[in-house]
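Researcher: Quick sanity check before group meeting.
Model: Go ahead. Protein one:
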Amino acid sequence: MLEKPDVQDQLIIDRLQDEYGLRVSQMTFLPLGADVNTAVYRVVTEDETAYFLKLRKGDFDEITVALPQFLQAQGIQAIIAPLETRAQQRWASLEAFKMILYPFIEGKNGYEVALTDAQWLEFGAALKGIHTVQVPPALAKLIPRETYSGRWREMMRTFQAQIEESAFDDPTAVRLAAFMKDRRGEIERLVRRAEGLGLALQVRSLPMVICHSDMHAGNLLLGENEALYIVDWDNPSFAPKERDLMFIKFPVWNSAREEALFYQGYGETEIDRMALAYYRYERIIQDIAEFCKQLLMTDEGGEDREQSYQYFTGQFLPENEVEIAFKTDRLL
Protein backbone atom coordinates (compact mmCIF):
# COMPACT_ATOMS: atom_id res chain seq x y z
CA MET A 1 0.00 0.00 0.00
CA LEU A 2 1.50 3.31 -1.11
CA GLU A 3 -1.01 5.64 0.55
CA LYS A 4 -1.52 5.75 4.29
CA PRO A 5 -4.81 4.15 5.37
CA ASP A 6 -7.56 6.21 6.95
CA VAL A 7 -6.73 5.19 10.51
CA GLN A 8 -5.60 7.74 13.09
CA ASP A 9 -2.04 7.21 14.33
CA GLN A 10 -3.09 7.70 17.94
CA LEU A 11 -5.65 4.94 17.62
CA ILE A 12 -2.92 2.56 16.43
CA ILE A 13 -0.56 3.68 19.18
CA ASP A 14 -3.21 3.19 21.88
CA ARG A 15 -4.02 -0.27 20.54
CA LEU A 16 -0.36 -1.27 20.54
CA GLN A 17 -0.11 -0.30 24.20
CA ASP A 18 -3.30 -2.15 25.11
CA GLU A 19 -2.49 -5.34 23.21
CA TYR A 20 1.31 -5.53 23.32
CA GLY A 21 2.23 -3.29 26.25
CA LEU A 22 4.29 -1.00 24.02
CA ARG A 23 4.88 2.64 24.88
CA VAL A 24 5.35 4.09 21.40
CA SER A 25 7.48 7.18 20.90
CA GLN A 26 7.53 7.20 17.09
CA MET A 27 5.52 5.60 14.31
CA THR A 28 6.22 5.97 10.58
CA PHE A 29 4.08 4.76 7.70
CA LEU A 30 6.15 2.88 5.09
CA PRO A 31 4.81 3.13 1.49
CA LEU A 32 5.77 -0.40 0.49
CA GLY A 33 4.38 -3.29 -1.50
CA ALA A 34 1.83 -3.98 -4.21
CA ASP A 35 -0.85 -5.30 -1.83
CA VAL A 36 -3.51 -2.59 -1.53
CA ASN A 37 -4.99 -4.36 1.52
CA THR A 38 -1.81 -4.21 3.61
CA ALA A 39 -0.26 -1.15 5.28
CA VAL A 40 3.03 -1.32 7.16
CA TYR A 41 4.67 0.91 9.76
CA ARG A 42 7.97 1.23 11.60
CA VAL A 43 7.23 1.59 15.29
CA VAL A 44 9.80 2.73 17.87
CA THR A 45 9.17 2.49 21.61
CA GLU A 46 10.45 4.68 24.42
CA ASP A 47 13.31 2.24 25.06
CA GLU A 48 14.34 2.66 21.37
CA THR A 49 13.28 -0.84 20.32
CA ALA A 50 12.04 -0.94 16.71
CA TYR A 51 9.12 -3.05 15.47
CA PHE A 52 7.52 -3.76 12.11
CA LEU A 53 3.73 -3.41 12.21
CA LYS A 54 1.45 -4.82 9.52
CA LEU A 55 -2.19 -3.77 9.23
CA ARG A 56 -4.10 -6.28 7.12
CA LYS A 57 -7.57 -5.41 5.79
CA GLY A 58 -10.01 -7.92 4.33
CA ASP A 59 -9.58 -11.68 4.39
CA PHE A 60 -7.29 -12.93 7.14
CA ASP A 61 -6.27 -16.53 7.68
CA GLU A 62 -4.70 -17.64 10.97
CA ILE A 63 -2.23 -19.85 9.07
CA THR A 64 -0.39 -16.74 7.84
CA VAL A 65 0.93 -16.19 11.37
CA ALA A 66 0.75 -19.72 12.80
CA LEU A 67 2.95 -21.31 10.13
CA PRO A 68 5.91 -18.87 10.40
CA GLN A 69 5.86 -19.32 14.17
CA PHE A 70 5.98 -23.11 13.73
CA LEU A 71 8.74 -22.98 11.10
CA GLN A 72 10.93 -20.78 13.27
CA ALA A 73 10.41 -23.18 16.17
CA GLN A 74 11.70 -25.98 13.91
CA GLY A 75 15.04 -24.19 13.64
CA ILE A 76 14.58 -22.50 10.26
CA GLN A 77 16.44 -19.29 11.03
CA ALA A 78 15.30 -17.49 7.86
CA ILE A 79 11.81 -17.05 9.33
CA ILE A 80 10.65 -14.00 11.29
CA ALA A 81 7.82 -15.08 13.57
CA PRO A 82 5.10 -12.64 14.71
CA LEU A 83 5.22 -11.42 18.29
CA GLU A 84 2.41 -12.38 20.63
CA THR A 85 0.03 -10.04 22.41
CA ARG A 86 -0.31 -9.89 26.16
CA ALA A 87 -3.08 -12.47 25.77
CA GLN A 88 -0.65 -14.72 23.83
CA GLN A 89 -2.46 -14.17 20.53
CA ARG A 90 -0.54 -13.83 17.25
CA TRP A 91 -2.50 -10.76 16.17
CA ALA A 92 -4.88 -8.09 17.44
CA SER A 93 -7.88 -6.38 15.86
CA LEU A 94 -8.22 -2.70 14.99
CA GLU A 95 -11.43 -1.66 13.27
CA ALA A 96 -11.39 -3.36 9.82
CA PHE A 97 -7.76 -4.41 10.22
CA LYS A 98 -5.78 -7.17 11.86
CA MET A 99 -2.60 -5.94 13.57
CA ILE A 100 0.46 -8.18 13.29
CA LEU A 101 3.69 -7.17 15.00
CA TYR A 102 7.25 -8.32 14.22
CA PRO A 103 10.77 -7.36 15.24
CA PHE A 104 12.09 -4.71 12.85
CA ILE A 105 14.94 -5.97 10.68
CA GLU A 106 16.99 -3.33 8.89
CA GLY A 107 17.60 -4.46 5.33
CA LYS A 108 16.60 -4.40 1.67
CA ASN A 109 14.77 -6.88 -0.50
CA GLY A 110 16.21 -9.12 -3.19
CA TYR A 111 15.18 -6.73 -5.97
CA GLU A 112 17.02 -3.82 -4.36
CA VAL A 113 20.33 -5.55 -3.69
CA ALA A 114 22.02 -8.65 -5.07
CA LEU A 115 22.35 -11.72 -2.88
CA THR A 116 25.88 -12.75 -2.01
CA ASP A 117 27.09 -16.27 -2.77
CA ALA A 118 26.59 -17.17 0.89
CA GLN A 119 23.03 -15.85 0.81
CA TRP A 120 22.17 -17.88 -2.30
CA LEU A 121 23.35 -20.99 -0.50
CA GLU A 122 21.39 -20.04 2.62
CA PHE A 123 18.27 -19.28 0.58
CA GLY A 124 18.40 -22.71 -1.05
CA ALA A 125 18.95 -24.47 2.27
CA ALA A 126 16.14 -22.52 3.96
CA LEU A 127 13.64 -23.31 1.21
CA LYS A 128 14.62 -26.99 1.30
CA GLY A 129 14.02 -26.94 5.06
CA ILE A 130 10.55 -25.51 4.50
CA HIS A 131 9.75 -28.04 1.78
CA THR A 132 10.78 -31.00 3.93
CA VAL A 133 9.37 -29.98 7.32
CA GLN A 134 6.77 -32.29 8.88
CA VAL A 135 3.71 -30.29 9.90
CA PRO A 136 1.50 -31.58 12.75
CA PRO A 137 -2.04 -32.56 11.69
CA ALA A 138 -3.72 -29.71 13.59
CA LEU A 139 -1.70 -27.15 11.65
CA ALA A 140 -1.73 -29.05 8.36
CA LYS A 141 -5.53 -28.99 8.18
CA LEU A 142 -5.43 -25.17 8.13
CA ILE A 143 -3.18 -25.03 5.05
CA PRO A 144 -4.89 -25.01 1.62
CA ARG A 145 -3.97 -27.79 -0.81
CA GLU A 146 -3.31 -27.29 -4.49
CA THR A 147 -6.30 -28.15 -6.67
CA TYR A 148 -5.24 -26.44 -9.93
CA SER A 149 -8.41 -24.36 -9.67
CA GLY A 150 -9.57 -22.38 -12.68
CA ARG A 151 -10.70 -19.45 -10.49
CA TRP A 152 -8.20 -16.91 -11.81
CA ARG A 153 -8.55 -18.06 -15.41
CA GLU A 154 -12.31 -17.64 -15.30
CA MET A 155 -11.87 -14.22 -13.74
CA MET A 156 -9.58 -13.16 -16.59
CA ARG A 157 -12.10 -14.35 -19.17
CA THR A 158 -14.71 -12.20 -17.43
CA PHE A 159 -12.44 -9.15 -17.46
CA GLN A 160 -11.57 -9.70 -21.13
CA ALA A 161 -15.27 -9.71 -21.93
CA GLN A 162 -15.83 -6.62 -19.79
CA ILE A 163 -13.31 -4.48 -21.64
CA GLU A 164 -14.98 -5.37 -24.95
CA GLU A 165 -18.43 -4.42 -23.72
CA SER A 166 -17.89 -1.57 -21.25
CA ALA A 167 -16.68 2.02 -21.33
CA PHE A 168 -14.57 3.40 -18.48
CA ASP A 169 -14.32 6.90 -17.04
CA ASP A 170 -11.23 6.51 -14.90
CA PRO A 171 -8.07 7.32 -16.93
CA THR A 172 -6.10 4.38 -15.55
CA ALA A 173 -8.93 1.98 -16.33
CA VAL A 174 -9.12 3.38 -19.87
CA ARG A 175 -5.38 2.81 -20.37
CA LEU A 176 -5.56 -0.71 -18.96
CA ALA A 177 -8.52 -1.66 -21.18
CA ALA A 178 -6.64 -0.41 -24.25
CA PHE A 179 -3.55 -2.38 -23.27
CA MET A 180 -5.57 -5.55 -22.69
CA LYS A 181 -7.21 -5.23 -26.10
CA ASP A 182 -3.80 -4.80 -27.71
CA ARG A 183 -2.46 -7.89 -25.89
CA ARG A 184 -5.64 -9.93 -26.23
CA GLY A 185 -3.91 -12.81 -28.05
CA GLU A 186 -1.16 -13.18 -25.46
CA ILE A 187 -3.62 -13.08 -22.57
CA GLU A 188 -5.83 -15.71 -24.21
CA ARG A 189 -2.76 -17.90 -24.78
CA LEU A 190 -1.74 -17.57 -21.12
CA VAL A 191 -5.19 -18.66 -19.96
CA ARG A 192 -5.48 -21.48 -22.49
CA ARG A 193 -2.06 -22.99 -21.71
CA ALA A 194 -2.51 -22.70 -17.93
CA GLU A 195 -5.82 -24.50 -18.23
CA GLY A 196 -4.38 -27.32 -20.32
CA LEU A 197 -1.39 -27.82 -18.06
CA GLY A 198 -3.57 -27.67 -14.95
CA LEU A 199 -5.83 -30.41 -16.27
CA ALA A 200 -2.78 -32.56 -17.05
CA LEU A 201 -1.31 -32.02 -13.58
CA GLN A 202 -4.56 -32.95 -11.82
CA VAL A 203 -4.08 -36.59 -12.78
CA ARG A 204 -0.35 -36.82 -12.07
CA SER A 205 -0.32 -36.76 -8.24
CA LEU A 206 2.93 -34.84 -7.75
CA PRO A 207 4.24 -34.82 -4.16
CA MET A 208 2.85 -31.95 -2.09
CA VAL A 209 5.10 -29.96 0.27
CA ILE A 210 4.75 -26.82 2.34
CA CYS A 211 5.20 -23.88 -0.04
CA HIS A 212 5.55 -20.17 0.66
CA SER A 213 3.70 -19.69 -2.68
CA ASP A 214 4.95 -16.13 -3.27
CA MET A 215 8.68 -16.69 -3.25
CA HIS A 216 9.82 -13.75 -5.39
CA ALA A 217 12.83 -11.56 -4.67
CA GLY A 218 10.69 -8.91 -2.98
CA ASN A 219 9.91 -11.39 -0.20
CA LEU A 220 13.56 -11.93 0.63
CA LEU A 221 14.80 -9.51 3.28
CA LEU A 222 18.57 -9.12 3.35
CA GLY A 223 19.91 -7.74 6.60
CA GLU A 224 23.25 -7.01 8.20
CA ASN A 225 26.07 -9.59 8.33
CA GLU A 226 24.56 -11.39 5.30
CA ALA A 227 21.41 -12.33 7.23
CA LEU A 228 18.56 -13.56 5.01
CA TYR A 229 14.87 -13.80 5.86
CA ILE A 230 11.83 -15.14 3.97
CA VAL A 231 8.91 -12.81 4.71
CA ASP A 232 5.21 -12.28 3.85
CA TRP A 233 3.56 -15.64 4.54
CA ASP A 234 0.12 -14.52 3.34
CA ASN A 235 -0.62 -17.50 1.05
CA PRO A 236 1.13 -20.71 2.16
CA SER A 237 -0.07 -23.96 0.61
CA PHE A 238 0.54 -27.65 0.17
CA ALA A 239 1.68 -27.82 -3.45
CA PRO A 240 4.38 -29.32 -5.66
CA LYS A 241 7.76 -27.78 -4.84
CA GLU A 242 7.75 -26.12 -8.27
CA ARG A 243 5.26 -23.59 -6.95
CA ASP A 244 8.18 -22.00 -5.09
CA LEU A 245 11.02 -23.04 -7.37
CA MET A 246 9.38 -21.41 -10.39
CA PHE A 247 10.42 -18.02 -8.98
CA ILE A 248 14.11 -18.78 -9.48
CA LYS A 249 14.95 -16.75 -12.61
CA PHE A 250 11.34 -15.53 -12.94
CA PRO A 251 11.78 -12.80 -13.90
CA VAL A 252 15.53 -12.88 -14.33
CA TRP A 253 16.88 -11.77 -10.96
CA ASN A 254 19.90 -14.06 -10.82
CA SER A 255 22.52 -15.47 -13.15
CA ALA A 256 23.07 -19.10 -14.06
CA ARG A 257 25.93 -19.20 -11.55
CA GLU A 258 23.69 -17.88 -8.78
CA GLU A 259 20.98 -20.35 -9.74
CA ALA A 260 23.59 -23.09 -9.35
CA LEU A 261 24.46 -21.75 -5.89
CA PHE A 262 20.79 -21.81 -4.91
CA TYR A 263 20.47 -25.46 -5.91
CA GLN A 264 23.74 -26.28 -4.19
CA GLY A 265 22.10 -25.06 -0.99
CA TYR A 266 18.75 -26.67 -1.80
CA GLY A 267 20.25 -30.03 -2.71
CA GLU A 268 19.86 -32.29 -5.69
CA THR A 269 16.29 -32.41 -6.94
CA GLU A 270 14.38 -33.19 -10.11
CA ILE A 271 12.35 -30.31 -11.52
CA ASP A 272 9.03 -31.13 -13.15
CA ARG A 273 9.02 -28.87 -16.23
CA MET A 274 5.25 -29.14 -16.72
CA ALA A 275 4.58 -27.95 -13.17
CA LEU A 276 7.15 -25.17 -13.58
CA ALA A 277 5.44 -23.90 -16.75
CA TYR A 278 1.99 -24.18 -15.17
CA TYR A 279 2.93 -22.14 -12.12
CA ARG A 280 4.59 -19.44 -14.20
CA TYR A 281 1.45 -19.08 -16.32
CA GLU A 282 -0.87 -19.25 -13.33
CA ARG A 283 1.11 -16.65 -11.39
CA ILE A 284 0.87 -14.15 -14.24
CA ILE A 285 -2.88 -14.77 -14.58
CA GLN A 286 -3.47 -14.31 -10.85
CA ASP A 287 -1.45 -11.09 -10.78
CA ILE A 288 -3.14 -9.48 -13.74
CA ALA A 289 -6.59 -10.57 -12.52
CA GLU A 290 -5.91 -8.89 -9.18
CA PHE A 291 -4.83 -5.72 -10.97
CA CYS A 292 -8.00 -5.84 -13.08
CA LYS A 293 -10.10 -6.08 -9.91
CA GLN A 294 -8.38 -3.02 -8.53
CA LEU A 295 -8.37 -0.91 -11.69
CA LEU A 296 -11.55 -1.89 -13.56
CA MET A 297 -14.00 -2.49 -10.71
CA THR A 298 -13.22 0.64 -8.68
CA ASP A 299 -11.61 4.04 -9.05
CA GLU A 300 -10.14 3.92 -5.54
CA GLY A 301 -6.50 3.46 -4.64
CA GLY A 302 -4.78 6.76 -5.36
CA GLU A 303 -1.10 6.29 -6.12
CA ASP A 304 -1.49 2.52 -5.92
CA ARG A 305 -3.46 2.62 -9.17
CA GLU A 306 -0.56 3.81 -11.30
CA GLN A 307 1.80 1.35 -9.65
CA SER A 308 -0.63 -1.49 -10.36
CA TYR A 309 -0.93 -0.43 -13.99
CA GLN A 310 2.87 -0.47 -14.32
CA TYR A 311 3.07 -3.90 -12.66
CA PHE A 312 0.43 -5.24 -15.08
CA THR A 313 2.02 -3.92 -18.26
CA GLY A 314 5.58 -4.59 -17.09
CA GLN A 315 4.99 -8.34 -17.14
CA PHE A 316 4.63 -8.15 -20.94
CA LEU A 317 7.94 -6.38 -21.53
CA PRO A 318 10.76 -8.30 -23.28
CA GLU A 319 12.53 -10.84 -21.02
CA ASN A 320 9.95 -10.41 -18.28
CA GLU A 321 7.34 -12.78 -16.87
CA VAL A 322 5.22 -13.48 -19.95
CA GLU A 323 8.18 -14.14 -22.25
CA ILE A 324 9.86 -16.37 -19.64
CA ALA A 325 6.64 -18.39 -19.17
CA PHE A 326 6.33 -18.98 -22.92
CA LYS A 327 9.99 -20.05 -23.07
CA THR A 328 9.46 -22.46 -20.16
CA ASP A 329 6.50 -23.99 -21.99
CA ARG A 330 8.53 -24.48 -25.17
CA LEU A 331 11.03 -26.63 -23.22
CA LEU A 332 8.36 -29.25 -22.39
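Researcher: Fine. The other one?
Model: Protein two, sequence then structure:
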Amino acid sequence: MKVYIISLSAGVLVGVIYSLLHVRSPAPPLVALVGLAGILIGEQVIPIGKQVLAGASISSAWKQGMATQHIFGMLPGHHSAQPKIAAAKVVEKQP
Protein backbone atom coordinates (compact mmCIF):
# COMPACT_ATOMS: atom_id res chain seq x y z
CA MET A 1 0.00 0.00 0.00
CA LYS A 2 2.95 2.29 0.73
CA VAL A 3 4.06 2.15 -2.93
CA TYR A 4 0.64 3.33 -4.07
CA ILE A 5 0.68 6.27 -1.66
CA ILE A 6 4.17 7.27 -2.80
CA SER A 7 3.11 6.99 -6.45
CA LEU A 8 0.00 9.08 -5.87
CA SER A 9 2.02 11.68 -3.94
CA ALA A 10 4.57 11.93 -6.74
CA GLY A 11 1.74 12.39 -9.26
CA VAL A 12 0.15 15.14 -7.17
CA LEU A 13 3.52 16.89 -6.85
CA VAL A 14 4.02 16.81 -10.63
CA GLY A 15 0.46 18.10 -11.08
CA VAL A 16 1.16 21.02 -8.74
CA ILE A 17 4.36 21.86 -10.64
CA TYR A 18 2.45 21.72 -13.96
CA SER A 19 -0.18 24.04 -12.49
CA LEU A 20 2.41 26.53 -11.22
CA LEU A 21 4.08 26.57 -14.65
CA HIS A 22 0.67 26.85 -16.39
CA VAL A 23 1.42 23.72 -18.43
CA ARG A 24 -1.02 20.98 -19.40
CA SER A 25 -0.06 17.34 -18.93
CA PRO A 26 1.45 15.86 -22.10
CA ALA A 27 -1.40 13.37 -22.62
CA PRO A 28 -4.99 13.14 -21.46
CA PRO A 29 -5.06 10.89 -18.38
CA LEU A 30 -7.13 8.10 -19.97
CA VAL A 31 -4.94 7.98 -23.07
CA ALA A 32 -1.81 7.84 -20.90
CA LEU A 33 -3.19 5.00 -18.76
CA VAL A 34 -4.25 2.98 -21.79
CA GLY A 35 -0.78 3.48 -23.27
CA LEU A 36 0.89 2.28 -20.07
CA ALA A 37 -1.36 -0.77 -20.00
CA GLY A 38 -0.38 -1.51 -23.59
CA ILE A 39 3.29 -1.32 -22.71
CA LEU A 40 2.90 -3.74 -19.79
CA ILE A 41 0.88 -6.20 -21.88
CA GLY A 42 3.27 -5.86 -24.82
CA GLU A 43 6.21 -6.83 -22.62
CA GLN A 44 4.53 -10.18 -22.03
CA VAL A 45 3.79 -11.04 -25.68
CA ILE A 46 7.23 -12.45 -26.58
CA PRO A 47 7.85 -14.58 -23.43
CA ILE A 48 4.31 -16.01 -23.47
CA GLY A 49 4.42 -16.48 -27.25
CA LYS A 50 7.65 -18.49 -26.99
CA GLN A 51 6.08 -20.81 -24.42
CA VAL A 52 2.93 -21.24 -26.52
CA LEU A 53 5.03 -22.10 -29.59
CA ALA A 54 6.89 -24.64 -27.44
CA GLY A 55 3.57 -26.40 -26.79
CA ALA A 56 2.25 -24.86 -23.57
CA SER A 57 -1.33 -23.64 -23.33
CA ILE A 58 -1.91 -19.89 -23.08
CA SER A 59 -3.10 -20.12 -19.47
CA SER A 60 -0.11 -22.25 -18.51
CA ALA A 61 2.30 -19.87 -20.26
CA TRP A 62 0.59 -16.91 -18.56
CA LYS A 63 1.04 -18.50 -15.11
CA GLN A 64 4.62 -19.64 -15.78
CA GLY A 65 5.63 -16.20 -16.98
CA MET A 66 4.02 -14.62 -13.89
CA ALA A 67 2.38 -12.13 -16.26
CA THR A 68 -0.37 -11.14 -13.83
CA GLN A 69 2.17 -10.14 -11.18
CA HIS A 70 4.15 -8.17 -13.76
CA ILE A 71 1.14 -6.32 -15.15
CA PHE A 72 -0.73 -5.62 -11.91
CA GLY A 73 2.14 -5.65 -9.42
CA MET A 74 1.62 -6.68 -5.82
CA LEU A 75 -1.95 -5.74 -5.06
CA PRO A 76 -2.77 -4.54 -1.54
CA GLY A 77 -3.77 -7.33 0.84
CA HIS A 78 -2.16 -10.11 -1.19
CA HIS A 79 0.94 -11.96 -0.18
CA SER A 80 3.75 -12.83 -2.54
CA ALA A 81 3.65 -16.22 -4.24
CA GLN A 82 7.26 -16.70 -3.29
CA PRO A 83 7.99 -17.69 0.31
CA LYS A 84 9.75 -15.12 2.39
CA ILE A 85 13.23 -15.99 3.54
CA ALA A 86 13.50 -15.86 7.30
CA ALA A 87 16.27 -13.71 8.63
CA ALA A 88 19.08 -15.74 10.14
CA LYS A 89 19.70 -15.14 13.81
CA VAL A 90 23.19 -14.12 14.75
CA VAL A 91 24.40 -15.82 17.87
CA GLU A 92 27.29 -14.22 19.68
CA LYS A 93 29.79 -16.51 21.31
CA GLN A 94 30.52 -15.71 24.91
CA PRO A 95 34.07 -16.29 26.18
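Researcher: One line on it for the slide.
Model: The chain has a mean pLDDT of 75.
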